[in-house]
Structure formats: structure tokens, C-alpha cells
């Protein structure tokens, strides 16, 4: 007879524990869900505001570096809100701080990868720009043909080359393309020889 109250007490204790954890789990899932929604909304809002302020255009004009700062800031804001939501959810579940350290490390890794992906084209173009500058094969006023693009060079920097076509269109050619592909320098009226650059 004494076994029944012990079993009943154990069952009640287990029920309270499971019920408490289940309610905490539901709250944690809701926190993450709301965090994802808010993160996306804030990211899009920041992107729209920065686009209205023409941050990328201003940065490009000032530094001549084609980095999409608007997208980087927008993504960082979104991931930061995701991170806060996950931390809050874990705090609700009373999980060990070691998980927070792992998540913080993963968050930093995501940020680093985002930055690397956004500048992955920048580094090869910069190196190619130095190569072109050192060899001095191309200069403003040269008419060139590379792949399907043909036109007169109107601007050169370490990242890209601006070419104006006969129709008046402006084409931005990455410097890495000018190093990798065959570039034909079309002679002007004064110079009848055609030279080729690689």
C-alpha cells in the first residue's frame, strides 16, 4: 500500500517537470520564430533606407571600391537579431552557457563568411589592377576588344576599367577579366598596328 503514494508522487514530479520543460520549449520556439520574422523585416528596412541614402554609390564614388556596404549592414543586422533570439530562447530553456559560446562562435563565423563572400571579387580585381598598372599596356583613350565588349577606355582604376562603346553605352570590365582574357587593342588612325595584351 505504501508503494502507491511513492509512485503517485514520482508521477506528479515527472509530470510537473515535463510540463514545465514543454511550456519553456514552446516559448523558446516562439521566441526564435518571432526573432526570424523581426530579423528579416529589420534587414529589409535597413537595406531600403541605406539604398535611399545611396550608401553604395557614395562609397563607390569616394573609394572607387565596388563593395556592397548596404547588403553587408543589412545582413549583419538580420543575423544579430537572429542571434539575440536564439540566446533568449536558450536562456528560457535554462541551458548551459557553453551552448551560448558555441552559438557566438558560429555567429562570428557567419559574419566573417558574409564579409568574405561580399569581397571575393574585390581581391582578384585589385591584384589584376596592380598587374595592369605595372605593365602599363592599357591607357585612357585606347580602344579595346575583350570577349564580346568593345569600346574606348574612358576610366581606369585598380578594380575595374570603364569602357564607352560606339553607341555611347558604358561598360565596367573587372580588371581580373582583362588579365585572364585576350585583350585586343584596336589601333587609332595614327597607329595602324594592332597589339594584343594578355
Q: Can you give a write-up of this model?
A:
The chain has 2 domains: 3-120; 135-197, SH3 type barrels (Roll), CATH 2.30.30.60. The model is unreliable at 190-196 (pLDDT under 50). Helix 1 runs antiparallel to helix 3 and helix 3 (69-92) runs antiparallel to helix 4 (97-118). Strand 3 and strand 4 (170-174) form a beta hairpin. It has helices spanning 3-52, 55-63, 69-92, 97-118, 122-135, 175-180, and strands spanning 143-146, 149-156, 160-164, 170-174, 183-186, 195-197. The protein has 198 residues and is α+β, with helices and mostly antiparallel strands.
Task: Characterize this entry briefly.
The protein has 198 residues and is of the alpha+beta class. It has two domains: 3-120; 135-197, SH3 type barrels. The chain is 63% helix and 15% strand.
What characteristics describe this protein?
disordered C terminus, 198 residues, 6-stranded antiparallel beta sheet, 63% helix, alpha+beta, 15% strand, 6 helices, SH3 type barrels
Task: State the low-pLDDT regions, or none.
Answer: 190-196
Placed side by side, the strands forming the largest sheet appear as 4-3-2-1-5-6
Measured as a percent range, the helix fraction is 55-70%
Structural class by secondary-structure content: alpha+beta
Total beta-strand segments: 6
Distance between the termini: 95 Å
Beta-strand content bin: 5-15%
Supply the number of structural domains: 2
What overall form do the CA principal axes indicate?
A: elongated
Count of alpha/pi helices = 6
Radius of gyration, Cα only, in angstroms?
A: 29 Å
Amino acid at each position: 500500500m505504501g508503494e502507491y503514494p511513492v509512485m503517485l508522487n514520482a508521477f506528479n514530479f515527472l509530470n510537473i517537470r515535463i510540463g514545465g520543460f514543454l511550456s519553456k520549449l514552446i516559448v523558446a520556439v516562439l521566441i526564435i520564430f518571432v526573432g526570424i520574422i523581426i530579423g528579416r523585416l529589420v534587414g529589409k528596412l535597413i537595406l531600403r533606407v541605406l539604398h535611399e541614402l545611396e550608401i553604395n554609390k557614395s562609397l563607390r564614388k569616394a573609394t572607387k571600391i565596388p563593395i556592397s556596404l548596404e547588403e553587408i549592414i543589412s545582413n549583419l543586422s538580420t543575423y544579430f537579431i537572429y542571434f539575440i533570439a536564439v540566446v533568449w530562447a536558450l536562456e528560457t530553456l535554462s541551458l548551459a552557457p557553453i551552448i551560448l559560446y558555441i552559438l557566438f562562435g558560429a555567429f562570428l563565423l557567419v559574419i566573417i563568411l558574409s564579409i568574405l563572400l561580399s569581397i571575393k571579387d574585390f581581391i582578384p580585381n585589385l591584384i589584376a589592377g596592380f598587374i595592369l598598372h605595372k605593365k602599363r599596356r592599357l591607357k585612357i583613350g585606347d580602344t579595346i576588344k575583350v570577349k564580346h565588349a568593345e569600346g574606348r577606355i574612358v576610366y581606369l582604376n585598380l578594380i575595374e576599367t570603364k569602357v564607352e562603346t560606339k553607341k555611347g553605352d558604358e561598360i565596367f570590365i573587372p580588371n581580373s577579366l582583362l588579365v585572364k582574357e585576350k585583350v585586343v587593342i584596336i589601333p587609332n588612325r595614327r597607329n595602324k598596328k594592332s597589339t594584343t595584351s594578355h
